[in-house]
From TrEMBL:
Source species of the chain: Enterocloster lavalensis
Binding-site residues, a divalent metal cation: H32, D34, H65, D174
EC number: 5.1.3.1
KW Transport (keyword) present: no
PANTHER family associated with the record: RIBULOSE-5-PHOSPHATE-3-EPIMERASE (PTHR11749)
UniProt protein name: Ribulose-phosphate 3-epimerase
Sequence similarity: Belongs to the ribulose-phosphate 3-epimerase family.
UniProt KW keywords: Carbohydrate metabolism, Cobalt, Isomerase, Manganese, Metal-binding, Zinc
The keyword DNA repair is assigned to this record: no
Catalytic activity: D-ribulose 5-phosphate = D-xylulose 5-phosphate
Pathway: Carbohydrate degradation
Gene: rpe
Cofactor(s), names only, from the UniProt record: Zn(2+); Fe(2+); Mn(2+); Co(2+)
Length: 220
């Protein structure tokens, strides 16, 4: 029911495949891949070649978070590189409906992300079409930032909406997720939790296991 998506942004890039294998050993089923273009967000991370290369080393679900301007330009190539879920920012798409259609046509699951200061109401017209909504709980661009508490209200509002509609749409939260912030997030209705520094800082397998044990508290 609950899914941990370790974000490789905090991994040792010289040992990506190794760190990914450790996360899988601990029980993770997703791998969160942060693509940054230096325009939508200040930093530049990695793109298709790195994702395609890593695809050869793991069967984890590739959950690609596109922090790029006009992400519609890259949907097909990110899918071809191995993405299973492609999440685009509402703020980066002039034609969001078209991009969601493009992602679905590619065969990937479609996610839409919101920056902390972007209200849930901006997704009103597309909420019934997406497989996942990503609530950013830090301003995107860097790992290791502090969780922004008001984003919990957005998670609650989304879960209420999906429950009312009888939809089992995933709600993902990304940014500052750790063993202190994860319980309020689950209680607010999040079911896909991204964690970068809390997974890849230290013993990766043990860190993932800690999250898995917290999930068990809620799955009983
Ligand atoms: O999208 C992201 C940053 O924009 C990352 O997924 C996120 O920051 C994960 O890192 P941490 O868990 O250390 O906050
Ligand atoms: Fe992310």
């Amino acid at each position: 029911m609950y899914i941990l998506a370790p974000s490789v942004l905090a991994a040792d890039f010289g040992k990506l495949a190794e760190d990914t294998a450790k996360a899988r050993e601990g029980g993770a089923s997703y791998l969160h891949l942060d693509v940054m273009d230096g325009a939508f967000v200040p930093s530049i991370s990695f793109g298709m070649p790195v994702i395609a290369s890593l695809r050869g080393y793991t069967d984890l679900v590739f959950d690609v978070h596109m922090m790029v301007e006009d992400p519609g330009r890259y949907v097909e190539s990110i899918r071809a590189a191995g993405a299973d879920i492609i999440t685009v920012h509402q703020e980066a798409c002039t034609h969001l409906d078209r991009v969601i259609g493009q992602i679905k046509a590619s065969g990937a699951k479609a996610g839409v992300a919101l920056n902390p200061a972007t209200p849930v109401s901006t997704l009103e017209c597309v909420l019934d079409q997406v497989d996942m909504v990503l609530v950013m709980s830090v301003n995107p661009g860097f790992g290791g930032q502090k969780f922004i508490p008001y984003t919990l209200d957005k998670v609650r509002a989304l879960r209420q909406y999906f429950d009312r509609k009888g939809l089992s749409t995933d709600i993902q939260v990304d940014g500052g997720v750790n063993r202190d912030t994860i319980r309020p997030l689950i209680e607010a209705g999040a079911n896909v939790l991204v964690a970068g520094s809390a997974v890849f800082g230290g013993d990766v397998k043990a860190n993932v296991e800690t999250f898995m044990n917290i999930f068990k508290e809620y799955e009983r």
